[in-house]
Amino acid sequence: MAAALDALDRKILDALQQDASRSLEELARAVGASKTPVWNRIRKLKAAGVIRREVVVLDPDALGLEACFFVLIRTAEHDAGWLARFQQAILNRPEVLEAHRLAGDIDYILKVRVTNPRAYDDFYRALIKEVSIFNVTSTLSMEEMKNTTALPLPVVAEKTGPDRA
């Protein structure tokens, strides 16, 4: 169930998604509120699970991770044992930035970041040693046109008046 967010919550979350390293004073000024209410809102948003964690976003190119592959996987096995092995294999591989189970002809898609195609081949060979895969299609991203960690914040009609909870 989605958390009920008011306008101030959305401003705080938007500001944190842009730069969570700001001081509480800077954040409060940016959202047009005082520090104590902003701090209390942040604590409530964390307790509600809206804010999962705070991280630093690194530049992959600056680290030499210039190759981004999208890996489409089809499997002939759909049992719990295979899934557990596959999930463990991708959790153990730091190259895998994202993994999704899909509906449709493709079973899984992975986003993999490596230094170059040779490093991707090493990743691929290690993966197929751990789990059997029916078909793999790998696609190299030629240009990253958009990359964001910021989620769109839903706008919900707010209650007004004395019955507002």
What does this entry look like structurally?
The chain is of the alpha+beta class and 165 residues long. The protein has five helices and four strands, in the order αααβαββαβ. It has a four-stranded antiparallel sheet. Strand 2 (96-101) and strand 3 (108-114) form a beta hairpin. Helix 1 (7-18) packs across helix 2 (24-31) and helix 1 packs across helix 3 (35-47). The longest helix has 14 residues, at 117-130. The model has no long low-confidence stretch (mean pLDDT 93).
Question: Rough shape?
Answer: elongated
Number of domains: 2
Unreliable spans: none
Per CATH, which architecture of the largest domain? 2-Layer Sandwich
What do the pLDDT scores average to?
93
Q: How many H/I helices?
A: 5
Question: In whole angstroms, how far apart are the ends?
Answer: 17 Å
Looking at CATH, the homologous superfamily of the largest domain is: Lrp/AsnC effector binding domain/regulation of amino acid metabolism (RAM) domain
- The structure class reads alpha+beta
Encode the helix/strand succession as letters. Answer: HHHEHEEHE
Give Rg in angstroms. 21 Å
Helical residue percent?
Answer: 25-40%
Instruction: Give the beta-strand count.
Output: 4
**The CATH C-level class name of the largest domain:** Alpha Beta
Q: Give the CATH topology of the largest domain.
A: Alpha-Beta Plaits
Our estimate of the beta-strand percent is 15-25%
Largest sheet: 4 strands, antiparallel
Going across the biggest sheet, name each strand in turn: 2-3-1-4
